TrEMBL record:
Compartments, record wording: Chromosome; Nucleus
Composition skew (Basic and acidic residues), residue ranges: 87-140, 157-177
Protein name, UniProt field: Cytokine-like nuclear factor N-PAC
InterPro entries reported for this sequence: 6-PGluconate_DH-like_C_sf, 6PGD_dom2, 6PGDH_NADP-bd, GLYR1_PWWP, HIBADH-like_NADP-bd, HIBADH-related_NP60_sf, NAD(P)-bd_dom_sf, PWWP_dom
Keywords: Chromosome, Nucleus
Gene Ontology MF terms in the entry: DNA binding; NAD binding; NADP binding; nucleosome binding
Annotated source species: Notiomystis cincta
């Protein structure tokens, strides 16, 4: 049976897992390079592009894989495969039974038809005999006339006028059925390394093996899958721009399919974003050493299994890859260049990943000093908020050392739903500032609209309901409006940080002589909110700048 496959995963770091090939969503690009298939994994809602050489037929390798994988979730996946096969077999048997009955009915009908034709022939023969006997000399005359005209009996004439004899196809119709392809035989008998796509995947493929028939149809039929689930499985796809995205596996404990790297991970900075990231790294089985300027914040993670680092330098020196997530450019520089800082722990081969949202000049300076000591550097600012961080649903924008980016894959899977590699150092910082500039400006516009509704006697709740039914509807819009309507400004994304990002985005525009009037206007509103002591509230507290 080749309906289900085992995947060895990228570089053998992911455990074998049973799945079946399905048709990817229309808006999901196929990776460039080697031949691969889009696989849905049993026992989960995960999907991934898997290279051909990493696929094996299910039945020949089933026992071998079960011996290797003793986990409960793997056994559940195998059970799901077997249940699927039982249901498929039941449908096939029912289909075969119905087909047999239909064939019997058809044969019976044909037999009755033959009997009817025979009866008609017999009657026609008798009738012709009576005519011949009763006409006497007319018989010769009729025969003579018939012979001269070359005419035939009505039955004979009807048979001659028929385009072809019953049951015999013409030459051009002999090969209408599709023969079993040699490709099918090759896949059925061995690994999928030799698998080739049929000439046209849009045409249904006929095959004597019902299981393989379903397997091939799964490449052409629309699968019942959810796009959110698709974006939760590791896959690499290169776009025309040259950027690469790794869309990572579900980071929650429900999934449990992430194979953590065997490298020692360090993490510096346990703020709103860092805390959620570290929690998910630990949950997915990574070995993590933590440090925070306020040491008390480390206690909870020590209880969850993290190790404590006394200084940033100590963390870097004892770990293979160290991540950092701090508030602004000054904090990022102090962390690296300050006393007992990151730079003092850098040795050849040590890796540093800065996840802070800073400007391109700052991140370029940090990269230079890290690399000058023989270290490897990657910038990886994150888009999201505290809730998304806790849920492992961040979007990671990375740039710098491509090899280090790939080494971080299991970590990125644990902390986020998607990560993008954007090229050289500085690109991720610029992109992150643009993203947050759009978000901050949008938040200010939401607040402005709600206050205008209030002062003109309109219902703010009704305005939200209308917006939620239109093209602007989003989780972000609904959550921030609810914050304002309920007067709840507990920080999910600090107002002071979005104002910092707006300021840096405006400076980015100035550096290339590009106008940013909308961002500049929004920045002024946030500055007023900060003057009203809203810095440590959520960004939605910008609303208060309009009502005071």
């Amino acid at each position: 049976l080749t309906l289900s496959f085992f995947s060895r995963g990228k570089l053998g770091r992911y455990p074998p897992w049973p799945g079946k090939i399905v048709n990817p969503p229309k808006d999901l690009k196929k990776p460039r390079g080697k031949k691969c298939f889009f696989v849905k994994f049993f026992g989960t809602e995960d999907h991934a592009w898997i290279k051909v050489e990493q696929l094996k037929p299910y039945h020949p390798h089933k026992e071998e894989m079960i011996k290797i994988n003793k986990g409960k979730r793997f056994q559940q996946a195998v059970d799901a495969v077997e249940e699927f096969l039982r249901k498929t077999k039941g449908k096939d048997q029912a289909s075969s039974h119905n087909s047999t009955e239909e064939k019997n009915r058809r044969n019976s009908s044909e037999e009755r038809g033959k009997q009817s034709v025979g009866e008609e022939k017999r009657k026609a023969s008798l009738s012709e005999g009576k005519v011949k006997k009763g006409t006497g000399e007319g018989k010769k005359r009729v025969s003579s006339v018939s012979s001269e005209r070359g005419s035939k009996s009505p039955l004979k004439r009807a048979q001659d006028q028929s385009p072809r004899k019953r049951g015999r196809p013409p030459k051009d119709e002999k090969d209408l059925t599709i023969p079993e392809s040699s490709t099918v035989k090759r896949v059925m008998s061995g690994t999928v390394a030799g698998f080739k796509w049929p000439p046209s995947v849009s045409e249904p493929v006929k095959d004597s093996d019902p299981h393989f028939h379903h397997f091939l149809l799964s490449q052409t039929e629309k699968p019942a899958v959810c796009y959110q689930a698709i974006t939760k499985k590791l896959k690499v796809c290169e776009e025309e721009t040259g950027s690469t995205s790794i869309q990572a596996a579900d980071s929650t404990a429900v999934n449990g399919n992430i194979t953590p790297t065997d490298k020692k991970i360090g993490f510096l900075g346990l703020g709103l974003m860092g805390s959620g990231i570290v929690s998910n790294l630990l949950k997915m089985g990574h070995t993590v050493t933590v440090w925070n300027r306020t040491a008390e914040k480390c206690d909870l993670f020590i209880q969850e299994g993290a190790r404590l680092g006394r200084t940033p330098a100590e963390v870097v020196s004892t770990c293979d890859i160290t991540f950092a997530c701090v508030s602004d450019p000054k904090a990022a520089k102090d962390l690296v260049l300050g006393p007992s800082g990151v730079l003092q722990g850098i040795r050849p081969g040590k890796c540093y990943v800065d996840m802070s949202t800073v400007d391109a000049d700052t991140v370029t300076e940090l990269a230079q000093v890290i690399v000058s000591r023989g270290g490897r550097f990657l910038e990886a600012p994150v888009s999201g908020n505290q809730q998304l961080s806790n849920d492992g649903m961040l979007v990671i924008l990375a740039a710098g050392d491509r090899g280090l980016y790939e080494d971080c894959s299991s970590c990125f899977q644990a902390m986020g739903k998607t990560s993008f590699f954007l090229g050289e150092v500085g690109n991720a910082a610029k992109m992150m500032l643009i993203v947050n500039m759009v978000q901050g400006s949008f938040m200010a516009t939401i607040a402005e609209g709600l206050t205008l509704a209030q002062v003109t006697g309109q219902s703010q709740q009704t305005l939200l309901d209308i917006l939620n039914q239109g093209q602007l509807a989003s989780i972000f819009l609904d959550q921030k409006c609810q914050n304002i309507l309920q007067g709840n400004f507990k920080p999910d994304f600090y107002l002071k940080y979005i104002q910092k990002d707006l300021r840096l985005a405006i400076a980015l525009g100035d550096s290339v002589n590009h106008p940013t009037p909308m961002a500049a206007a929004a920045n002024e509103v946030y500055k007023r909110a900060k003057a009203l002591d809203q810095s440590d509230n959520d960004m939605s507290a910008v609303y208060r700048a309009y009502i005071h």
